[in-house]
Amino acid sequence: MAKYLISFPSAAMLVPDHELAEVGHNAHAVIEEAKAAGVYVFAGGIDESVSPVLVAADGTFTSGGYPWAPALNGGFTVLELASRDEAITWAARIAKACRCDQELRVFGLDS
């Protein structure tokens, strides 16, 4: 079993305001299905109202993330699945519910 990250940046979600409640309902329904299937690890989104902090090895910190990297935002789901094909199937279900493409990555866990 591997853990898969299914995610999208905030800018990918181009849903009219009057449809956001339906999208939220549909996305939560898929998450409930993942929980019922026993594959759910966690899900959520980056709180964009809280600025990131870049912490150095010596413990000093500065406001903001890496200045050269794109902003990290959007929604994330982590599922534990038996295969990449199964992960693609779940990512497609989430994409349909959220009405935007999802990026799929596998975690290389340090165990």
TrEMBL record:
It comes from the Bacteria. This is Transcription initiation protein. It comes from Undibacterium flavidum.
